[in-house]
Amino acid sequence: MGKIHIEKGSVQETLIIPLYGRKLCAEQFPALYQDPYAAGICESIDYDFTQFKTKEKSGMYQFGALEGAMREKDMLWEIKDYLEKHPNAAVVNLGCGLNMTGRTADNGTCRIYNLDFPDVIQSRNALVPAEEREENIACDLNDFSWMDQIDAGDGAVLYAAGVFHYFTTQQIKKMVVAMAEKFPGGRLVFDAVGKFGRDKLMKGTLKSMGMKDVSGLFCVDEASELEGWSPKVKLTSRKSYMQGYYKLDDPNIKGIHRFLAKLCNSLAKMYIYRMEFTA
Ligand SMILES: C[S@@+](CC[C@H](N)C(=O)[O-])C[C@H]1O[C@@H](n2cnc3c(N)ncnc32)[C@H](O)[C@@H]1O
User: Fold this and answer.
1) Are 118 and 141 in contact (CB under 8 A)?
2) Whose Cα sits closest to atom 11 in ligand 1?
3) Which of 21, 91, 142, 161 is the most exposed place for a label (fewest CB within 10 A)?
């Protein structure tokens, strides 16, 4: 099989950043993070990773990779927590990229759905084809017909890792309200940055994806901004990416990583949010 190609300058290309970050963290911080899939997937992709390889020793770059890995661990915590009470639930990966969270969380009875744009799903089908109780769905998340393809009879935990940044606030609000109607008793978990994080830290990435005006893109400074969207939506948790769920415990974690982790909360407001939909 030839290597899978990922188009440069597309929103889909953003999946490369967390994927490579997970590979790097599994190599550099093995006591903190393990990933049995990322390295093999990177090898199967036709993509020039030189830009990342040359930065691997930089504390700043390592920190960016750690963010992606910790976010993955945090989401896994939330999924497993939901599955304890709803073991047969649908585990729905919104904007999955080449992320294997669903399979890592698999309890043997849940149903796993991976959703992304058609070209990403095509790559995914070639690289990591769906297994038993798993389905890959090609869609645009803004077209809510994907919701009809989810069997949520036994509950649903939906999560978006590094995805909502590419939507406007209005689009996210509409999607969340629709999910609350469609998946009563469900849980939604996502990450978001504040305005400073969006305008100063993410602007470069967003611009390289053709998003020149970032002002309407989704960001959250205060949890109260997420309230009052629908009587069926309740914000039940807001925790720091980097320290909210796990300690940064690994012998290779340096002072700069800990320092930047603190800035992540205070300046960039990088948090994982959990919403519950009333049954
Ligand atoms: C930064 S990547 C994150 C990928 C994955 N969640 C991870 O953590 O590795 C963002 C992903 O969201 C997908 N995405 C963005 N907008 C989307 C949309 N409107 N519909 C479906 N997928 C979308 C992109 O194609 C990309 O795979």
Assistant:
1) no
2) 95
3) 142
